[in-house]
Amino acid sequence: MPADVRDDAEVRGAVAACGGRLDALVLAAGVLGPGSPIDEIDDAGWQASLDVNLTGAMRCIRAAAPLLRASPRGRVVGIASTGALVGLPRLAAYTAAKAGLVGLLRSAAADLAPVTVNAVCPGSVPGPMLDASAAVYGLGSASELAAHHLLGRLLQPGEVASLVAYLCSEAAGGITGAVLPVDAGFTAR
Questions:
Q1: Is residue 176 exposed (0-12), middle (13-18) or buried (19+ Cβ within 10 Å)?
Q2: Range of the structural domain that residue 50 is part of
Q3: Confidence (pTM)
Q4: Which residue, 14, 35, 123, 135, has fewest beta-carbon neighbours within 10 Å?
């Protein structure tokens, strides 16, 4: 269900539109935020990144918790980032928000059990957000980032989606509180 995660009323409205049943919540909202060194980030840019990447996820989990607990197979999967696992230069607000998301999801796993709650940390996936990242680093194209991955390539969206789908499935019922990178070897370097 679409909603602006910065608006609690919209989030609650989207959950209400589920008609009283919710088996899986995938937290996929994200913004890159300011692409500047930490000493140049203004408060507005910092807060904008936290509002979407971290506080928005908390709003969604909070609103959906009663329905997820009532589900025979409640699942929460948050799309974090490899930025949550390594420090990304010039992206401190994004990195901090995504690292905070990992902590939030681990706490939610403890609070919501037996609902399973996990984090997926994608690496570089072609698209507008990656193009913006490439611009922050002064790369001519996002494909130049492929050299920083052990597999020598970027991910395809379906590779991330397959992991998310698995974590939402019955087969993944024993996995909770996990932080799973899917990053073509970026964090293994």
A1: buried
A2: 8-188
A3: 0.94
A4: 135
